[in-house]
């Protein structure tokens, strides 16, 4: 069977990676949202739930059985070891879920995987190419404040500071989509779509 081309899409908060993925989806390309699926799996996968409780204790879930995201974030935010242990149980489960999902889309010309955290293509993953969606920090902060007015600029800057730097992220890129409002985003995406469907 011919190898299914797997494209990763990443970018910092407010860069527009979700918008880019919506365009790919509108072009008929299957999109796997790793962060959304990870959240779903932590609530709905019984074995993962058991593993999360083993790492963090019963307070990781509320009385209704929902993943207690705010509490978990408060526990791992200042504890890199605990965060690594949590990621150590979640990431393998997401990888298995990704592979199951890919096996259901073998008729597609290619598939897209969206994730906030990503390594370079082939670096311990199944990706063939990585797209980085890039925008200046000031513009990203403006966008986030527009969609989430209760967040302060300091809160947003703290999130950006916790993510990998733009320079490090750009080192992962096989392709860069500039979403800085000085050039149109859609033609850039369509050009990549043409490249991926033509295997250029």
Task: Describe it.
- With 200 residues, the chain is an alpha/beta fold.
- The chain has two domains: 1-30 and 107-200, Rossmann fold (3-Layer(aba) Sandwich); 36-104.
- The chain is built from nine helices and five strands, in the order E-H-E-H-H-H-H-E-E-H-H-H-E-H.
- It has helices spanning 17-26, 34-44, 46-56, 69-76, 80-103, 137-147, 153-162, 166-171, 185-198, and strands at 5-10, 31-33, 110-114, 129-134, 175-178.
- A five-stranded parallel sheet has the order 2-3-1-4-5, sandwiched between helices.
- Helix 2 (34-44) packs across helix 3 (46-56) and helix 3 runs antiparallel to helix 5.
- The protein is globular, with a radius of gyration of 18 Å.
- The mean pLDDT is 91.
Write the CATH architecture name of the largest domain: 3-Layer(aba) Sandwich
CATH topology group of the largest domain: Rossmann fold
Radius of gyration: 18 Å
Q: Tell me the overall shape.
A: globular
**SSE series:** EHEHHHHEEHHHEH
What's the number of domains?
2
Structural class: alpha/beta
Spatial order of the strands forming the largest sheet: 2-3-1-4-5
Please summarize what this structure is:
This protein has 200 residues and is of the alpha/beta class.
Structural key phrases:
Rossmann fold, five-stranded parallel β-sheet, 5 strands, 12% strand
How is this fold's topology laid out?
Layout: E1 5-10, H1 17-26, E2 31-33, H2 34-44, H3 46-56, H4 69-76, H5 80-103, E3 110-114, E4 129-134, H6 137-147, H7 153-162, H8 166-171, E5 175-178, H9 185-198
Parallel strand pairs: 1-3, 1-4, 2-3, 4-5
């Amino acid at each position: 069977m011919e190898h299914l081309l797997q494209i990763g899409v990443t970018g910092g908060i407010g860069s527009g990676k979700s918008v880019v993925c919506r365009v790919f989806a509108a072009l008929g390309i299957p999109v796997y949202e790793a962060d959304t699926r990870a959240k779903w799996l932590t609530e709905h996968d019984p074995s993962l739930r058991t593993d999360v409780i083993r790492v963090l204790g019963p307070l990781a879930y509320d009385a209704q059985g929902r993943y207690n995201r705010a509490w978990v974030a408060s526990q791992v935010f200042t504890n890199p070891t605990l965060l690594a242990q949590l990621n150590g149980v979640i990431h393998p489960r997401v990888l298995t879920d990704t592979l199951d999902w890919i096996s259901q889309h073998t008729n597609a010309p290619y598939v897209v995987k969206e994730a906030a955290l990503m390594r370079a293509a082939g670096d311990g993953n199944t990706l063939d190419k990585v797209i980085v969606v890039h925008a200046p920090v000031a513009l990203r902060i403006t966008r986030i404040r527009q969609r989430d007015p209760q967040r302060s600029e300091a809160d947003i800057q703290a999130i950006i500071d916790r993510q990998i730097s733009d320079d490090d992220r750009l080192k992962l890129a096989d392709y860069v989509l500039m979403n800085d409002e000085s050039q149109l985003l859609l033609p850039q995406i369509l050009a990549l779509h043409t490249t991926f469907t033509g295997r250029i």
